[in-house]
Design a protein that fits this description.
It is a single chain. This protein is α+β, with helices and mostly antiparallel strands. Helices cover 17% and strands 35% of the residues. It has five helices and 18 strands. The protein starts with a strand and ends in a 14-residue tail after the last helix.
C-alpha cells in the first residue's frame, strides 16, 4: 500500500513551484499525493512553509494520529524539521517511512463569559489572554488547581506548553522548557505587580484566570495566534492539558540543545565539550 501524503504549503512566491516538484517526486517514488482539504485521510502531512503554516496544518488533522513534518520556507521555523536544501532527501525518507515521531503536548481552554456561555478551544503553542484596549490594562486573578496564586494588572497572560515556550512565552520573558518535559507555563506580559514572575506547573494541573469585573477593559483570547475567543471582563478562563497530542516527525536525533543553538544562532564559543552539528 502506498503512503498517502497530504501536502500543505504557504502561498509565498516560490513555494508553489517547490510543491509541484515535491508532488512529482512523491509520485515517482510510489506515494500518493492528497490535497490539504483531504489531510485527515492521509498517512502523513508534509508542510512547506514556516511555523504559521505548520500550526495551520495541525488544525487540519486535529484529533487524528497523523504525523506532520515541516520544511522551513519561513523565518526561524522552530517547528520545522528540515530546510529547503534537503527537500529531496526529505521526500525520499517520508515516502519510505524512514522517520521517528515525537508526541507534543497540547492544551485545551474553556472560556466562560459572564452570561454563562462557554466556548472551548485548543493550542499547540499557547493560549494568550490579551487586552483589547491599548490604553488600559486588564485585571486578572490567577490560580492553580482551584487555589488562588496572585492578582495583578497586565497587558496579557500567556499560558503555554513546552513547545510554546520558544514562541510567545519566550518573547514575554518565560523560560525555555525542553519539549520532553511535561509541564504547563504561565507568563504574565507587562504585569504591574511585585510578584508576577513566570510559573511552571505540573502537566496535570489546571490553571484558571478570572478577569476582574471591576475593570471596564475587555480582553480576547488567541489560540496559537490563529483562533480568537472573546473574553469580556468577568470571564473565567480555564486551561488544562489536552488528551490529544500533535505528532511531529523527526529525521535526525539531534538533541533539543542543538536545535536551540541552530534556530536562535546562540553563541557557544568557549564550550570545550563534544561538538555535534544538526
Amino acid at each position: 500500500m502506498s503512503q498517502k501524503i497530504a501536502l500543505v504549503r504557504h502561498s509565498r512566491p516560490g513555494v508553489h513551484q517547490q510543491a509541484e516538484l515535491v508532488s512529482a517526486a512523491i509520485a515517482d517514488l510510489g506515494g500518493t499525493i492528497l490535497p490539504e482539504e483531504r489531510a485527515r485521510e492521509a498517512d502523513f502531512v508534509l508542510v512547506l512553509g514556516g511555523d504559521g503554516t505548520i500550526l495551520y496544518a495541525t488544525e487540519l488533522v486535529r484529533g487524528r494520529p497523523i504525523p506532520l513534518l515541516g520544511v522551513n520556507f519561513g523565518h526561524v521555523g522552530f517547528l520545522a524539521e528540515a530546510d529547503p536544501e534537503s527537500l529531496g532527501d526529505v521526500v525520499s525518507r517520508v515516502v519510505s517511512g524512514d522517520y521517528s515521531v515525537d508526541e507534543r503536548m497540547t492544551i485545551e481552554v474553556s472560556v466562560t463569559s459572564p452570561d454563562g456561555v462557554t466556548t472551548t478551544g485548543w493550542a499547540l503553542n499557547e493560549v494568550a489572554l490579551l487586552k483589547v484596549d491599548r490604553a488600559r490594562m486588564i485585571g486578572v486573578a490567577f490560580g492553580v488547581d482551584g487555589r488562588a496564586v496572585s492578582s495583578f494588572g497586565c497587558d496579557g497572560l500567556v499560558l503555554a506548553t513546552p513547545t510554546g515556550s520558544t514562541a510567545y512565552a519566550f518573547s514575554g520573558g518565560g523560560p525555555i522548557v525542553w519539549p520532553d518535559v511535561e509541564a504547563l507555563l504561565a507568563v504574565p506580559i507587562a504585569a504591574h505587580a511585585l510578584f508576577s514572575r513566570p510559573l511552571v506547573v505540573g502537566p496535570d494541573s489546571e490553571m484558571t484566570v478570572h478577569l476582574d469585573t471591576n475593570l471596564v477593559s475587555d480582553a480576547e483570547i488567541w489560540c496559537d495566534g490563529r483562533r480568537r475567543i472573546a473574553a469580556p471582563h468577568g470571564t473565567v478562563v480555564t486551561v488544562r492539558r489536552s488528551p490529544e497530542p500533535v505528532l511531529l516527525a523527526r529525521l535526525t536525533n539531534t538533541p533539543f540543545s542543538g536545535r536551540l543553538v541552530a534556530k536562535f544562532s546562540l553563541p557557544v564559543h568557549g564550550w570545550r565539550g563534544p561538538q555535534s552539528h544538526a
